[in-house]
Amino acid sequence: MASPEHRDESRPLLEGSRPPSYAGDDDASCESPTASDLRPANKLSKVDLIWVLAGLWSAVFLGALDGTVVATLLTPIGSYFEKSNQVSYVGTSYLLSVCCFTPLYGRLSDILGRKGAMLLALSLFGSGTICCGLAPSMETLIAARAVAGMGGGGVMTVSSVAVTDLIPLKQRGLYQGMANILFGLGAGIGGPLGGWLNDTFGWRSAFLVQIPVLAFSTVLVILKVNIELPDEVKNRTTYEKIRRIDYWGSLTLVGAVGCFLLAFSLKSTEELPWSHPLIWGLFCVSFISGISFVLVETYWTAYPVMPLRLITRRTPLFVSLSNFFGSMAAFSVIYNIPLYFSAVRLQNATDAGLHLLPHSVALSTGSVFAGWMMRRTGKLYGLTIGSVLGATTATILICFWNEKSSWIHLWLDIVPQGFGMASLITTTLIAMIASVTKEDLAVATGITYLFRTTGQVLGVSLSGAILQAALVHSLRTRITGPGSEETIERIRHSISVIPTLDPQLRSAAVAAYSNSIRIVFICQAALNFITFLTCLPIQENPLPGSHEEQEEQYRRMREEPHNGHAVLEE
Asked: Basic and acidic residues compositional bias: what residue ranges (predicted)?
């Protein structure tokens, strides 16, 4: 292994094995740390910690609430602008923006500091939300949601990084569980709140009412979030910090992820064929941007937005993959379970949605349970494997749902999926953080959220594409004769017409949906099994119980960067 050496900004970080400092690699050679180096720099009193968490988590709560509020408002927004055919892009633009910009905030929080990066995220989210409330046209609203997404992804990432700075790893999972409860609470009340605000004051009020909470979060971040970074970061001018931003790496990463996800979204929402020029054109741009990103990060930039050396390490790689495949399965379940009860069981939207309630409760309890277990035992590997096996078992049971399934199965089979996936994303986040040095934890957190959000979008779009392909084939084998194509199109695009059909057509439609959704359920089980396989290589690393122990672990990791953090090629 090459010894640490002095570097300048023109040399790539991938040379050698020493992780970069917050400020870059142009600092002096590593020396044995003094006692002052091991003192925790960000140990807060309980009162200050509560205020910091209130500032960070109020923004997280609002981000979750915003998502379900907007989902409730799509129909009235489309009617208001008389452009219901474009209203799906209000949600798509936000999700794509979140996916594209989430990974950038890990590095930005190192360059601008945790406070600076969080304020940037809040500013973008807030300005986008205000513009949504004042939007004069559908096009302006779609663009404003994209701006809000630029900040929304950062809110989640930077808040997670900041809490990691303040909380020892052994307790970190429990705090993540509490954050997930707040996230679930926001997502749960967003729908009813959005509907009430729309009916009472109009849809614009649902955006503008978020501003006071954003202001509260911003004030607390300004006053209370003072996380200390190394002197070489604090002492640099704003201009020097801005120069260190990896603009080309950020641009190529956004292009690669954005075009890739947009192609799948258009395939699903617009039902374009794979051979359509727009679809394969976007895939080509994504591929070229991806290659450019790898070249830029490897040979060009001195301070990469996503160091490829992290992705080639064993635990970070498999944590990323497990989050990707697990999120695909989880969001496919969330979107298709209500569809099953609406199209196959012919329940109304309210009753169909209620079947997700046990899943929501399991999500909250699973995350807290995982945090409590890690705090008690200091271990995470067995918990990770058990969690993903529970989720896999749940999706296998769901595959066997039929007209004879009892209410116990229909209500409770989904519980291990929610519990297991919530536990999994908590344990794998801690596994990722425990596998990297302090200097890399922000970027590593951003990578985790990138793979997670990308999996969420792909899970929804791919399951929709699979469902529609199977449904068309199944309907055409069951419904034939004059006017059959028109009937098939009505059934595909509006589930509400199924109960109004004559008994023979209704039976054919229900059978077609049942078979098609079962194919999606089988794909979900397969994705969870792949998630299980990707969890097997994740390493068990010590979880320090105090700030002092954590600083000591960082010191040992710097001295032996690959000890317990194997690189794939080794």
From this structure: 1-12, 546-570
